[in-house]
Design goal:
CATH architecture of the largest domain: 2-Layer Sandwich
Radius of gyration: 23 Å
Number of domains: 5
Helix content: 25-40%
CATH topology of the largest domain: Uridine Diphospho-n-acetylenolpyruvylglucosamine Reductase, domain 3
Distance between the termini: 28 Å
CATH class of the largest domain: Alpha Beta
Bound molecules: flavin-adenine dinucleotide
Number of helices: 16
Number of strands: 20
Largest sheet: 9 strands, antiparallel
Structural class: alpha+beta
Shape: globular
């Protein structure tokens, strides 16, 4: 009997026959994330139902030295939720999707990690006075799980300008360590503490060790997050920005966004859509309204929330005064008149805007999302456009496609630039597509020094290959990884870790 057959039997004992599979179609279907370029076919897929089962599976993986890759809903676009190279076990955590406790007294919700952001927010809206999590996940929040969001330090699906990344809202985690021990971080590390309420436990910020770790330090099984009452009042406006003889559209947008940020206004979100993205929105019929509103330039919208009409009026007056001084054209108030802010907030546009570029099967998606200071937006645009220009022949040679980016505000003072390439999905082009993708990531890294957050396979490795990670910092990463995962069984290969020791 091979080691993989032995562990299969062991896992069957742990979770039961129904929740483990080694069938080729099942394993194949877990071999990619939403990106189509990266593929690694696992040998086993397992869907545990609780933390103890996760713990037993990890203990078995150590015993048989079989690698394990945790997965939420597989909406990662950088190869995070599949093995690097064929083989290993994919640990699908989506059966663990219950809301365990809503602590209204202390405004904390504790969940099993496999529930999606949209399901959680929907459920919370029906509890007591109606709640939500403030920062409401990534733009893929209709499917992405709390575990995926916390592992990828996600942001982009609502509330970024006011609440920041979803990780900022985390006050404690239950984690199964790679060797199988189960710990709870944050206040609940104190055995006399009844309920989680702060992210720091007894000592350093060990919760932080597992946030944004892309699943290399442990398997998160439960999370406690801050809870906020649903705002009673909200307002939104959308502006068209055109270039002037002195300034490009992105320069004007960056200037205005920085003023908003520096004045510490009560913005819930603000998004900049350059004209290239606006035309994709129109083409894909996601924002037909922009055609009717005769928008030709770039678009900037904001949303703000408040608890009273007076507070809302105060917010709107301050935010809009700055936009007015910047002489940008305000579109009408309704969605039909082009108010994307209203669509974003009232019609769940927060969990749809990225579908324009990152969904469907005709394009292989090559995302390069990063965070950087707001003033770098025009530099980003220049680097990006130059790269596209000098690589357009190569892209056309493999069928062509499209390129896009957008930028949005993240609390307190930077932006997230989401985007990348979408090239015609052809299996025979995967290698060339991989090379182009990595080249774009490394170009952006070197010129902008941006900070990536969902790093999966390709960005994690590009960070090491480009020299972005200093030798001292990398040694520190190795030391921590070795201490937690001595046999290198959890997500090996990300940042090349687990392969190099
Ligand atoms: C249309 C679209 C829009 C997107 N928009 C955004 C966006 O706005 N912002 C953003 O940040 N991302 C975005 N993404 C990328 C991705 O969907 C998110 O990062 C999301 O949080 C991933 O959640 P998931 O449940 O699908 O995780 P998965 O894809 O399953 O996993 C993501 C990573 O987390 C690890 N992981 C998952 N669960 C656990 C766990 N319980 N314990 C330990 N490790 C775990 C995996 O190993 C993997 O490395 C988008 C993707 C698409 C397709």
């Amino acid at each position: 009997m091979t080691e993989i057959q032995k562990i299969y039997e062991k896992i069957e004992d742990i979770v039961g026959t129904k929740f483990v599979s080694d069938s080729i179609p099942i394993c194949y279907s877990y071999s990619m994330n939403c990106d189509l370029v990266l593929q690694g076919i696992p040998e086993i897929v397992v869907r545990p139902g609780n933390s103890n089962e996760v713990s037993e599976i990890l203990k078995a993986a150590n015993r048989y030295r079989i690698r394990i890759i945790p997965r939420g809903n597989g909406a990662d676009l950088t190869g995070g939720a599949k093995p690097i190279g064929d083989g290993g076990i994919v640990l699908d955590l989506t059966r663990m999707n219950k809301i365990l406790d809503v602590d209204e007294k202390n405004r904390i919700v504790t969940v099993e990690i496999g529930i999606s952001w949209s399901e959680l927010c929907e459920e919370l809206s029906n509890v007591g006075i109606g709640y939500y999590t403030g920062s409401t996940g990534p733009a893929s929040g209709f499917s992405a799980t709390i575990g995926g969001g916390l592992s990828n330090n996600s942001v982009g699906g609502g509330g970024a300008a006011k609440y920041g990344n979803v990780t900022e809202q985390c006050v404690g985690l239950e984690v199964v360590l790679p060797t199988g021990e189960i710990i709870y971080t944050g206040a609940k590390a104190n055995s006399f503490c009844d309920k989680p309420f702060t992210r720091f436990g007894l000592g350093a910020d060990y919760t932080g060790l597992f946030l944004g770790d892309i699943g290399i330090h442990g398997v998160k099984t439960k999370a406690s997050l801050n809870l906020y009452p649903l705002p009673e009042y909200a307002a939104y406006s959308t502006y068209e920005i055109k270039k002037t003889p002195e300034m490009s559209e992105s320069e004007r947008a960056a200037k205005l966004m920085m003023e908003w940020q520096h004045k510490n206004l009560a913005l819930y979100d603000f998004y900049y859509y350059p004209r290239s993205f606006v035309s994709q929105l129109k083409m894909r019929k996601m924002a037909k309204n922009l055609i009717e509103a005769k928008v030709r330039g770039s678009v900037l919208f904001y949303t703000t929330v408040a608890n009273t009409q007076k507070e809302l009026d105060y917010n709107v007056e301050r935010i809009e005064r700055i936009a007015k001084d910047a002489k940008v054209r305000k579109l009408g108030d309704t969605v039909e008149e082009g108010n994307l802010g209203k669509w974003f907030y009232e019609e769940d546009g927060r969990w749809q805007w990225a579908n324009v570029s990152w969904s469907g099967h005709s394009l292989a998606i090559m995302a390069t999302c990063l965070k950087c200071p707001t003033y770098q937006l025009p530099d980003f645009e220049r680097v990006y456009n130059d790269w596209i220009k000098s690589n357009s022949e190569k892209m056309n040679a493999i069928g062509g496609g499209s390129a896009m980016f957008i930028a949005f505000g993240v609390y307190p003072s930077h932006i997230d630039i989401a985007g990348g390439l979408g090239l015609l999905n052809k299996r025979e082009n995967r290698e060339s597509q991989y090379d182009l993708w990595k080249d774009l990531i490394i170009t952006q890294l070197k010129v902008l020094g941006g900070i990536h957050y969902w790093m999966g396979e390709i960005i994690g490795r590009a960070l090491i290959d480009s020299g972005a990670v200093t030798e001292e910092y990398y040694n520190f990463m190795i030391t921590i990884k070795k201490a937690l995962d001595p046999n290198g069984i959890l997500s090996p290969g990300k940042f090349y870790l687990g392969e190099k020791y």
